[in-house]
Amino acid sequence: MANPKSKKIIKRGLPFGPRNYIFLGIGLVIILLGYLALMQGPVNSFWSLTLAPILLVLGYCVIIPIGILLKSKPPGTT
Description:
Blueprint: H1 18-39, H2 46-69
Helix pairs in contact: 1-2
């Protein structure tokens, strides 16, 4: 039988830190701007053919994954 005093206590906090939420918020704003750009002007305009896809891909494929995968720093490290 294992000694109960030798067990390590693992503290578990929230899975995301403040930096994660900042990146997720920035990603959501960029995605919203992409959809707003998609609604602007005629179908073959710069807004809907160029800017909107760039913003949507940036939001969905870059910023949101960074917000999810970024590990928060343990307390006490700089």
